[in-house]
Amino acid sequence: MNNIFCEINDYILENEVAYAIFDKFPVNEGHMLFIPKRHVKDFFDLTRNERESIFELVDEGKKLLDEKYSPDGYNVGVNCGEVSGQTVMHVHVHLIPRYTGDTSCPKGGVRGVIPDKMKY
Ligand code: 5GP
């Protein structure tokens, strides 16, 4: 199963099981993706070790972004399946730094996956 991530080798962070890259079309400056080395499409098919290894890198990525960009908050998310918005069929966790004023009304955050339901 080859996909767009297979062609990328400029890793920002890496461990034995996973790696991190910057998103080519960032939602905000510093948007990172955390990807298992094993080719697996669905987040729910990851092993415990893969999940732990990915989230170790998410923690490291957060530190790196805090130092580099000093964001005011973060969204962490995974799109699971086409219906959820997944476009690259190799699991990846998004770490999106948030900056005060980057949107006029951030209330609801990840609820915005269905824009009409974002506010409650
Ligand atoms: P998905 O919609 O599958 O959750 O997210 C795929 C992500 O991959 C998107 O945020 C998109 O911007 C990013 N992306 C797509 N193509 C490339 C690429 O060639 N390089 C990098 N670094 N990111 C990519």
TrEMBL record:
PROSITE patterns recorded: HIT_1, HIT_2
One biological process term in Gene Ontology: methylation
Any GO molecular function: methyltransferase activity
All residue ranges annotated as the HIT domain in the record: 1-105
Enzyme Commission number, as recorded: 2.1.1.-
Name under which the protein is recorded: HIT family protein
Organism: Romboutsia sedimentorum
Pfam families: HIT
InterPro entries the UniProt entry points to: AP-4-A_phosphorylase, Histidine_triad_CS, HIT-like, HIT-like_sf
